[in-house]
């Protein structure tokens, strides 16, 4: 089976996703903050390669 770089993460095995968390401000209001976080690529299972 031929191996190719995973098209979802370009062979990195990880993808950057944005995690949204809600922050309570000192005045009691809420604001949402999105932080970039690295997660394992679900397409290739973190290997960076895909089999065809």
Question: Structural class, please?
Answer: mainly beta
What average pLDDT do the residues reach? Answer: 93
Shape: rod-shaped
Q: What low-confidence regions span 5 or more consecutive residues with pLDDT below 50? A: none
Distance between the termini: 6 Å
- Determine the number of helices (DSSP H or I, runs of at least 4 residues): 0
Count the beta strands.
4
Give the H and E element order.
EEEE
Strand order across the biggest sheet? Answer: 1-4
Q: Assess the beta-strand content as a share of residues.
A: over 45%
The Rg value, from CA coordinates, equals 17 Å
Care to give the gist of this entry?
Helix content is 0%, strand content 54%. The chain has no helices and four strands.
Question: Which structural traits does this protein have?
Answer:
0% helix; 52 residues; mainly beta; two-stranded antiparallel ribbon
What would you note in describing this structure?
A hairpin with a 5-residue loop joins strand 2 (14-24) and strand 3. The chain has strands at 3-5, 14-24, 30-40, 49-51. The strands form 2 sheets. Strands 1-4 form a two-stranded antiparallel ribbon. It is an all-beta fold and 52 residues long. Helix content is 0%, strand content 54%. The model has no long low-confidence stretch (mean pLDDT 93). The protein is rod-shaped. The relative contact order is 0.41.
